[in-house]
Structures are given as C-alpha cells and as structure tokens.
TrEMBL record:
<keyword id="KW-1133">Transmembrane helix</keyword>
<feature type="transmembrane region" description="Helical">
    <location>
        <begin position="185"/>
        <end position="206"/>
    </location>
</feature>
<dbReference type="InterPro" id="IPR050623">
    <property type="entry name" value="Glucan_succinyl_AcylTrfase"/>
</dbReference>
<keyword id="KW-0472">Membrane</keyword>
<dbReference type="Pfam" id="PF01757">
    <property type="entry name" value="Acyl_transf_3"/>
</dbReference>
<feature type="transmembrane region" description="Helical">
    <location>
        <begin position="343"/>
        <end position="359"/>
    </location>
</feature>
<feature type="transmembrane region" description="Helical">
    <location>
        <begin position="276"/>
        <end position="295"/>
    </location>
</feature>
<feature type="transmembrane region" description="Helical">
    <location>
        <begin position="88"/>
        <end position="107"/>
    </location>
</feature>
<feature type="transmembrane region" description="Helical">
    <location>
        <begin position="53"/>
        <end position="76"/>
    </location>
</feature>
<keyword id="KW-0812">Transmembrane</keyword>
<dbReference type="InterPro" id="IPR002656">
    <property type="entry name" value="Acyl_transf_3_dom"/>
</dbReference>
<feature type="transmembrane region" description="Helical">
    <location>
        <begin position="12"/>
        <end position="33"/>
    </location>
</feature>
<dbReference type="GO" id="GO:0016746">
    <property type="term" value="F:acyltransferase activity"/>
</dbReference>
<feature type="transmembrane region" description="Helical">
    <location>
        <begin position="147"/>
        <end position="165"/>
    </location>
</feature>
<feature type="domain" description="Acyltransferase 3">
    <location>
        <begin position="10"/>
        <end position="356"/>
    </location>
</feature>
<protein>
    <submittedName>
        <fullName>Acyltransferase family protein</fullName>
    </submittedName>
</protein>
<feature type="transmembrane region" description="Helical">
    <location>
        <begin position="307"/>
        <end position="331"/>
    </location>
</feature>
Length: 416
C-alpha cells in the first residue's frame, strides 16, 4: 500500500451532510412559527421559535465555510475549474427556478392573496416575471430562486475566490502563519460581529446585487475556508470545541431573553447593538464548536458517508418544494402540529432521497440537479494530513492538544 496517499477530511463531508440536513427540520419549523414564510399553518405560534434560534444564526455560514475549504481543495487539482464548477452550480439554479421553485410561489399567492387560478394559469405569469402579486407595496418578485439563493452566492464567491487564488498565490501560506492559539479564534469572530452591526444600513434581502450584510458575513466565511482549508485552523477548533460550545449555549440563552423581553419594546440603541454583537459571536462560536466536535468525532469514512455526500445536494435542491407540497397534501387530515411536524420531516427526507436514488441514474437529469458522476462525487478533495500545522507544530503532535438577516431570525418573503 502506498503510504503517501493523502487522507480525506471526512469530517467536512459529515458537516456538509449535517448542515444541509438541518435545512429540512428548520424549514418545516418555518411552517409553524410566527415568522413569515411561503405557507403557514393555522396553528402557527411562537412555541418552537427558541429551538429554531439554535441554528438560525450559523447553519448557512457553516456551509459557506465548508464550501470555501472545498474550493481550495479543488483549486489544488490539475485541470479545469471555472467551467465544471459553474456547470455544477448554475444548471441546478436554472432548473430549480424553472421547475422546482414555482410551486412554492404558487401556493404562496394562493394562501396569502387568495389567488384563484390554477397552477397552469400561474406558471406563465411566473415565467414572464409578473409583478402584480402584491399586498400594498409588498410585491412578490417573479421568477425567484427562494431557497436556492445559496447557489448564485456560492458561484459568485467561487469565481472571486478563483481570481484571488490566481492574483495572490501565496495568500494561503500567509494565512497559515497567522494561526496561533485560542486568541486567533477570538479575533476571527470580530468580522462577523462587525457585519451584524451593519444590519440597519444593509438588511438581508437574498438579492445577489443588494445584500451587503449577507455578503459581509458569508464571503468572509467562504474566504476563511478557502485560505484555511489546509492550515491548523481545524486543529485549533478541535482544541477549543468545548469552550466554544459553552459560549454558544450562553449566547443562545441571552438572545432568547432579548427577543422575549426587549425586541418588541423598542430597545435602546445600546441594547440593540449589544444583541447584534452577541448574534455575531454566537454565529462564530457555534461554527467553531461544530467544526471542532466534527473533527474529533466524525473524521471517518463509511458507506453512509459515501452515499450521502452526493445525495445531500439533491435533497437541498428539492426539500423546500417537497415541504410546501406536503403541507397542502396533509391539510385534509387535520393533524396536530406535534404529529404533523415529525411526519413532514420524515416524508421530506424519504421523498428527496428517493428522488436522488432515481435521478442519479439519468445522466441529463443528474446534471440538472447537481449530482456528480460517481467518480466525481461532491465533497472536499483528499489532502495530506502532513500539511496540517498549528502554531508551527506538526499535525500529529498538534492533535494531542484537545472551541440571519434581520433582528428576528427569519427570512422575509411576501409578508403575510
């Protein structure tokens, strides 16, 4: 056996699987909370909002961090990059906007604006960009990418990252020299905290050309993954994982107290900005805890990882539309949320993974939903463990030392 064969960062694959998987219970939860979403349950209340807040600040940021790391691994390969990466991200975006997303918008105007036309009547309006579905000055923009906003953002960041890689070839080495002790992790939280302070000027829009708050946080995390993928950053996160988890739990509890007692009472400027700083710190500490514990516990391979790594992207493409359609299908049953919610989660996972098992066998459709051929399955490329260092120590030694877009944690669509 060739002992020089590089090892794979399997924990990044598992993190990606978990982060995408969390979108299913989160978006099912959006059906039952008071925050705005495409369709709403008649039983919507604030009951599970504290649970939603556990992942709202950090789950998408974690995906951009992992995507940045995966991009560095891909840039390290010989061969083309821009065209295959664009095809992998933009084909699913186009297919999603034309085929997957329209049912979400249809049921949104049916439930919020009492639209009486059929889906066949609605689809031509959607495709030609009809902007007449309004409540006052709040109009639904069509066509839309809804939950697929991650794809154009990631494509733009990937192209910028590729250009940076070409223009600044020694950037990775310079970043690696900055990795030190736990103070490094504290400093890396500052940009996220500062970004959150800009929310008054730059509210979250998920409009690629006018979403500066999200670009500040997500492009930063993408660059962090891009520059730090082969550095000692992961080892540092592993070392401080428990401290980060403890702070994240504390920050979550404090944010709950803020939203319960202060958010609806016109808080003072100091209180408002304190909450935003805490949000940014919570985002980073949760990401550090997730990465650190994943490297500690999930850096292994098995058949489930190999199957789920390409499957999870297909689940991401379809999951929100499947959820919306299932909520309509289950309405006649009149199930209570405590029974209906878990059923929606289970059925969404089952249907999306079944779609993957079917579509991966059809080459053209496989391309449309971003399923790579088996020999090119998605995920970070292998890298040598020997390249990992922390504070100048070899990885083997270093491993011996063991850390949303508005003031409410939700994304606004057509306000209900």
């Amino acid at each position: 056996m060739d002992t020089t064969t590089p090892s794979r960062h399997h924990f990044l694959d598992w993190l990606r699987i978990i982060a995408f998987g969390l979108l299913v219970p989160y978006h099912v939860g959006m059906y039952y909370v008071t925050w705005d979403w495409h369709v709403k349950s008649a039983a919507a209340s604030s009951t599970i909002e504290p649970l939603m807040l556990i992942t709202a600040p950090w789950r998408m940021g974690l995906l951009f961090l992992i995507s940045g790391a995966a991009t560095q691994f891909m840039l390290g390969r010989a061969g083309r990059f821009v065209r295959p990466r664009s095809r992998r991200l933009l084909w699913p975006l186009l297919f999603g906007m034309l085929v997957v997303v329209p049912p979400q918008s249809y049921y949104e105007v049916v439930t919020k604006l009492a639209y009486g036309g059929s889906y066949a009547d609605f689809l031509p309006l959607y495709l030609r960009g009809y902007h007449g579905f309004c409540r006052g000055t709040d109009c639904l923009s069509l066509p839309t990418w809804n939950h697929l906003w991650f794809l154009p953002y990631l494509w733009a960041y990937t192209m910028l990252g590729w250009a940076l890689w070409k223009l600044w070839p020694d950037g990775r080495e310079k970043f690696e020299r900055l990795i030190g002790d736990g103070r490094t992790l504290l400093l890396l939280a500052v940009p996220l905290m500062a970004a959150r302070l800009t929310l008054t000027l730059f509210p979250s829009t998920h409009n690629l050309t006018a979403d500066w708050y999200n670009h500040l946080q997500y492009f930063y995390l993408f660059l962090l993954g891009l520059l730090g993928a082969r550095s000692g950053l992961w080892v540092l996160m592993q070392r401080w994982r428990w401290q980060a988890l403890g702070f994240a739990v504390l920050a979550w509890a404090l944010l709950l107290a803020y939203f319960k007692h202060y958010a609806s009472q016109d808080p003072s400027t100091a209180m408002l900005y304190g909450q935003r700083l805490l949000w940014g710190a919570f985002e980073w500490s949760a990401i550090v805890a997730a990465c650190g514990h994943a490297r500690q516990c999930l850096d292994f391979d098995n058949a489930a990882r190999r199957w789920l790594t390409p499957a999870i992207f297909c689940l991401y493409v379809f999951h929100q539309t499947v959820i919306v359609l299932l909520t309509r299908a289950l309405l006649p049953l009149g199930l209570p949320p405590v029974a209906e919610g878990p059923l929606l989660i289970a059925l969404t996972f089952a249907i999306c993974l079944a779609l993957y098992a079917l579509l991966r066998r059809v080459p053209v459709l496989r391309e449309f939903v971003g399923i790579a051929p088996p020999r090119q399955a998605a995920g970070p490329s292998p890298i040598s463990a020997a390249t990992l260092t922390v504070a100048g120590l070899p990885q083997a030694r270093a491993a011996q030392v063991q850390v949303g877009g508005s003031d409410r944690p939700c994304t606004r669509e057509l306000r209900g």
